[in-house]
Design goal:
The protein is mainly β. The chain is built from two helices and 14 strands; from the N terminus they run ααββββββββββββββ. It has a twelve-stranded antiparallel beta barrel. A two-stranded antiparallel sheet has the order 8-9. A hairpin with a 3-residue loop joins strand 2 and strand 3. The protein is elongated.
C-alpha cells in the first residue's frame, strides 16, 4: 500500500526536474547582469632553497711563461773555413837547372811554405831541398860528384794571447853536406807581437830562446879550437817576418831570424828567407826565392855565408 503512494510522487518529481533542465524559451531574451568575480592570487607554497655545498677550491695551475718563438732557420750553408775550422794557404815549388859544355851539371830544388790559420792560432810548415851535381871527364873517365846537398824542414805553432800578443814554439831540422853537418836540431820558444795584421799586410816581431844540437860527419869539425862530432848550445832568438799582397796576384814574403849565442864564445847564426810569387793562373805561380845563411862557427874550408837564389814554378796550396 505504501508503494502505491510512492510511485505518483516519483513521477511528479521527474517532471519538475525536466522542466528546470529545459526552460521554456520566451520571446524577449533575458538580460543577465555581469557578475563580478573577485580574483584571488593562487596560493603558492613557499619553496625552501637549501644552500648549495661550498665548492672545493680548484687546484692551483702554475703560471706558464710564454716562450719566445724559435727563430726561423735559414737554409744550410757550409761553415766559413777561415773563421771557424781554419784553412791552408801557401805554395809548393820545384826548380831544375841543367848545364852542358864547359860546365856539365845539374841542380834540383824543392821548396814548401804553408800555414794553417785560425782566428786564435796558426801552424806553419816549411822546408827546402837543394842538390847540385857536377860531371867531369878525365882521361876518358867520367866522374859525377855531388857538389852540394842541403835540406831544411821545420814547423812552428803560434797561439794568440790577445789581439796583439802571441806565444810560439818551434822545431827545426837541417843538413848541410858542404859544412859536414850531418844533422842539426833546434827547439825554440818565445813571445811575439802582431805589429800589423789585415788581408794585404801582416808583420810580426818576436823574441825568445832556442836550444841547438849538432852532429857532424866523419871525424867532426873544429869549434873553438876543439874537434867535435857533437855540439850543443843555448841561443837567444830575435826575429821578424811579414807578408805582402800586391794587386791580388803578387805576393812577397820575408823572414829574418838572428841567433846570438847565450854565452861568450858560442858564435852567432842568422837566417834570411824571402820570396816573390806572381800568379800565372788560379793554380800555378812563378816564384823567385832567396835563401841566406850565416854561421860564425862554420869550419873551413866552408864559408860563413851561404846564399842561394832559386827560381821555378809553384803550386798554390789552399786559398
Amino acid at each position: 500500500m505504501k508503494q502505491a503512494y510512492l510511485l505518483p510522487l516519483l513521477l511528479a518529481g521527474s517532471v519538475a526536474l525536466a522542466q528546470e533542465a529545459n526552460p521554456t524559451p520566451s520571446d524577449t531574451p533575458a538580460v543577465t547582469e555581469p557578475v563580478t568575480v573577485p580574483l584571488r592570487a593562487p596560493e603558492v607554497a613557499p619553496v625552501v632553497v637549501e644552500p648549495a655545498p661550498a665548492a672545493e677550491p680548484a687546484a692551483e695551475v702554475p703560471a706558464i711563461t710564454p716562450q719566445p718563438a724559435a727563430p726561423a732557420q735559414a737554409a744550410y750553408a757550409p761553415p766559413l773555413q777561415l773563421e771557424t775550422a781554419g784553412s791552408w794557404a801557401g805554395d809548393f815549388g820545384a826548380g831544375l837547372t841543367l848545364s852542358s859544355g864547359n860546365t856539365d851539371g845539374q841542380a834540383f830544388n824543392l821548396t814548401l811554405d804553408t800555414t794553417y790559420t785560425r782566428p786564435e792560432d796558426k801552424l806553419s810548415l816549411f822546408g827546402n831541398y837543394l842538390e847540385s851535381r857536377a860531371r867531369t871527364e878525365t882521361d876518358g873517365v867520367v866522374t859525377t860528384s855531388i857538389t852540394a846537398r842541403r835540406w831544411r824542414a821545420g814547423t812552428r805553432y803560434d797561439r794568440n794571447i790577445n789581439a796583439e800578443d802571441f806565444g810560439f814554439v818551434g822545431l827545426e831540422f837541417s843538413h848541410d853536406r858542404v859544412r859536414d853537418l850531418d844533422l842539426r836540431s833546434v827547439i825554440s820558444t818565445g813571445l811575439g807581437r802582431h805589429l800589423y795584421k789585415d788581408a794585404e799586410l801582416t808583420w810580426d816581431v818576436y823574441a825568445g830562446l832556442s836550444w841547438r844540437e849538432d852532429y857532424y860527419r866523419g871525424e867532426g869539425v873544429e869549434i873553438n879550437g876543439t874537434l867535435r862530432k857533437r855540439y850543443a848550445t843555448t841561443e837567444a832568438l830575435f826575429g821578424q817576418e811579414s807578408t805582402h799582397q800586391f794587386a791580388g796576384s803578387t805576393r812577397f814574403t820575408q823572414k829574418f831570424v838572428l841567433y846570438p849565442g847565450a854565452f861568450e864564445g858560442q858564435g852567432t847564426r842568422a837566417t834570411l828567407d824571402a820570396g816573390l810569387l806572381v800568379d800565372i793562373n788560379t793554380t800555378l805561380s812563378l816564384s823567385v826565392k832567396l835563401q841566406s845563411r850565416y854561421d860564425s862557427q862554420s869550419p873551413p874550408p866552408a864559408e860563413k855565408y851561404d846564399l842561394s837564389l832559386i827560381t821555378g814554378l809553384s803550386v798554390k796550396i789552399g786559398k
